[in-house]
Amino acid sequence: MDKTEISDVVKSEFVESKMGLMEILRNDRVQAVIGLAIFGLLLLVFNYWAIDTAQAHQYYGLALLFLAIYFWILTPISYIFTAFLLISFSVILGIIVPEEAFTGFASTTIFFLIGAFILGLTIEKHGLHKRIALKVLKRFGDSPKRFVLGIILIGSFLSMTMPAHGVAAVFIPVLLSIYSVYKESELDPNFVKASLLGLSFSTSIGSMGTFLGGARNPLAVEIYYSETGKHISFVEWFIAAIPLVLIMTFILYLVLVKLFDMKNVDMQKLRDKVKSEVKDMGDFSMGEAKALGFLISAFVAWAILGQPIGMGVVAVLVSVVIALSGTISWEDIAQRLPWGTIFLYGGAISLAFILGEAGTLQFVATSLLDLAGENPFLLLALFAVLTAFLSNVMSNAATTGVILPIALSAMLVMDFPDVLPVFLVALPSAFAFMFVVGTPSAALVYSTGHLEQKDFLIPGFILNIIGLAIFLTIGLGWWRLLGYW
Q: What is the 3 state secondary structure string of 79-126?
């Protein structure tokens, strides 16, 4: 064997060993052990540095914050069990007493989410959203670009009335059915990519508009209330967010039609298919009428009664009325209610409470002020950028739960209007455009087999940059007009 062959063998063995090491490091159990080992090391170091119990708790909170980010990014265990782990350690370390451990799960936000999910499941069960989608597509079937615009408008609008991933889950079969009218040689890949990405991205954008599409929005309001004792109503949130939702929806359309050249699409086949789908649905059913009535009633009730009796109470009352009407059964709810999401938000609220009790939030906020200077706008921009890009690799609820309490503490220390970080953290957390793992909607459109990870990256990055620029200019200007600062 000559030197070249020996070199090739050595290189091959090195590559194989490297690949083997990477496989080991990607193992969930290994990642969990590494994370817990680093957490334990941090506790030992912080315990050595601390001069008293109060400072030790501050430092322990930092270790818990590291553990939360590590586990929520790499997900060696589910988000639910990560939340349980954080709560357990906070009690063991003496940061909170056992009676306060599950404070987040008793929050009114949890019950608002349950009621909102039941309303969304009612709409989904009776196909109201599908009828709306098909009616819109029927009007936008004149050209490929108009069709993509119709999809974007549907995704953005519907995700203000029901969970964003629910919109994507039920609308994807509609799109796949439409694509099926074309032979493989006739199907323009740019048209398919633009329409699927339009669906995924628009549901994220629309979810910023109300408390229904993005559960991180009521989570942010709950954290804001727990830190300041102040409320943000359903109407106030909608007014603060809707101009930015509309602008981002329009920007999304411009980005997609610029990046994807769509020309060779036989729109007559597409129009015929949509008409056929509309015809197959038949007349407007009693179930659809009830679902629409409940949706309108819920919006009105949240606008009028949300402040005096609470958003959560209104949500559960609406769900009771839905059940009494027979529009949906408990069996429907129990099978499809996203219990994991509900537990995740309970854990995120608990984490914010734990870090506040530990004194970690004020410690981190003060440290950031020392680092960035006492320029509130620079600090807000830092939080917005961090949120937007971190939400691409971890749950946007987890991102909000980690960053918002710190941002609020920083604004309170500076005596600056504390409502701005709520909008500049919760809303940009929807900018999970760049990676498939960013949102369930992205994972769903990716699962169709028509998209690759690289298809998300460029348009997602562009939308992140433009979106942040819009929020830090137009957004701040709009909130100034509303008197928030």
A: HHHHHHHHHHHHHHCCCCCHHHCCHHHHCHHHHHHHHHHHHHHHHHHC
